[in-house]
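Try this one yourself first.
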């Protein structure tokens, strides 16, 4: 769906605000095990990369409603098209924070902060892929090139936005070789 500027940027700000609040609460909670919390943040961020891949590959490209939204994005990559704001953040809180909070605040807070950080990185990198011109030697340039192959290749490849790890692991990585795009299975 085409979003207003406010709608397009809402999840950026809400996610960052929740991360800051979570870090603040974690910092001032004297009962908090800092190492355990940081480990959970790392696990949450790593988990996000797999979630991002799965959503992009199996929901955005196969589930009819989301496929329609995603096809609109592919048709107009520079437009402010996306899922309605707040849905991603609410899903993250529902799927990660709520269940984990029943057992441990440290785990719930750390895990959710990591997933939100990954989600924020995904939104930022995806935005940059379509709106920025990074230096050709930068990691962001390579991420942008990888994502451009996803947009401009007829076969399904390069579903990861923030990392290519899962594409390489699952055989969906596309790459430039001798002027042609070569890829794994879709």
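Now uncover the answer:
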């Amino acid at each position: 769906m085409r979003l207003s500027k406010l709608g397009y940027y809402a999840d950026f700000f809400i996610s960052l605000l929740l991360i800051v609040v979570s870090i603040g609460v974690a910092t001032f909670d004297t009962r908090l095990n800092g190492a355990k919390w940081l480990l959970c943040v790392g696990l949450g961020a790593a988990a996000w990369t797999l979630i991002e891949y799965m959503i992009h590959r199996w929901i955005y490209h196969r589930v009819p409603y989301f496929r329609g939204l995603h096809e609109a994005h592919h048709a107009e990559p520079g437009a402010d098209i996306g899922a309605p704001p707040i849905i991603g953040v609410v899903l993250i809180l529902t799927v990660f924070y709520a269940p984990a909070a029943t057992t441990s605040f440290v785990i719930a807070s750390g895990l959710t902060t990591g997933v939100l950080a990954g989600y924020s990185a995904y939104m930022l990198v995806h935005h940059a892929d379509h709106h920025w011109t990074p230096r050709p030697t930068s990691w962001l340039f390579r991420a942008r090139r990888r994502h451009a192959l996803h947009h401009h290749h007829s076969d399904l490849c390069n579903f990861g936005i923030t990392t290519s790890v899962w594409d390489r692991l699952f055989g969906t990585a596309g790459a430039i070789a001798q002027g042609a795009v070569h890829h794994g299975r879709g």
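Discussion: The radius of gyration is 17 Å. Confidence is low (pLDDT under 50) at residues 177-186.
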